[in-house]
Automatic annotation (TrEMBL):
The keyword Aminoacyl-tRNA synthetase does not apply. This is Membrane associated rhomboid family serine protease. It comes from Petropleomorpha daqingensis. InterPro entries: Peptidase_S54_rhomboid_dom (IPR022764), Rhomboid-like_sf (IPR035952), Rhomboid_protease_S54 (IPR050925). It is found in: Membrane. Keywords: Hydrolase, Membrane, Protease, Transmembrane, Transmembrane helix.
Length: 250
């Protein structure tokens, strides 16, 4: 036996294990995709690209590209503003989830997406994970349309949806929920304490992500039912967002 970082190792066992293992492939984007999840990396790339584009747009009109990109011509066309959505600019409900209001806002959301998204993508597979992400965006957007008239932007509605999905998945697998409950509670406190954060959008994304995961869990034996269930949920959220008038302004 030889000392190891954790306990001891048997040299013969190690050699046997290495003989049966595949040699690691070269690094690069493919290796990063296997480690973090290709869909998650693509989503991060889109968010970063949108931020760069809005920052350039802000600079062209003399606005600070680091802190005022969302009032640039491009940023103003992407942000979710409920009255504008009611007037027919429905795409804002989706584009706002890829728009960030500064480098700190972007960095925090992308770090959370990298961690949560990669884990959920490995658990669900690419298409189911993307379905949960999309439904979470729509859930957050619908909540904003129903309960606020303020302009909002950011990927946090989808990230909260991933947390909701994690909770349902852990519940279905009978895992300890204390970690995810603590994390959600902490984020609720942060959303309340820090001004300018849309708690309504976060809760909407969380509920939608949890519902999407519940559909996937309940229909796990039939892929066609999973597709139909998540599609119905997505359409229902869009219909609610575009047809139901604002209930309460928060």
């Amino acid at each position: 036996m030889v000392p190891a970082s954790v306990g001891f190792q048997c040299p013969e066992c190690v050699r046997a294990g290495q003989a049966g293992a595949r040699a690691p492939k070269s690094g690069g984007l493919r290796a990063a995709g296997r480690r973090w999840g290709p869909v998650t990396l693509v989503l991060i790339g889109i968010n970063v690209a949108v931020y760069v584009a809005t920052a350039i747009s802000a600079a062209t009109v003399g606005s600070n590209p680091l802190t005022r990109n969302y009032v640039s011509p491009l940023g103003a066309a992407l942000v979710q503003f409920p009255p504008a959505v009611d007037a027919g600019e429905w795409w804002r409900m989706i584009t706002a989830a890829f728009l960030h209001l500064g480098p700190f806002h972007l960095a925090l959301n992308m770090l959370a997406l990298l961690v949560f998204g990669s884990e959920l993508e490995r658990a669900l597979g690419r298409w189911r994970y993307l379905a949960v992400y999309g439904v979470s965006i729509l859930g957050g957007a619908a909540a904003v349309q129903l309960f606020t008239v303020s302009a909002v932007a950011g990927a946090s509605t989808a990230i909260w949806g991933l947390m909701g999905a994690f909770g349902v998945l852990m519940l279905a697998q009978r895992q300890d929920l204390r970690g995810i409950v603590t994390l959600v509670a902490l984020n609720v406190v942060i959303s309340v304490v820090i001004p300018g954060i849309s708690l309504v959008g976060h809760i909407g994304g969380f509920v939608a992500g949890a519902l999407a995961m519940a559909v996937l869990v309940l229909t796990k034996r039939t892929r066609s039912l999973q597709i139909a269930g998540t599609a119905v949920l997505a359409v229902a959220l869009v219909v609610v967002a575009l047809t139901v008038p604002t209930v309460v302004v928060l």
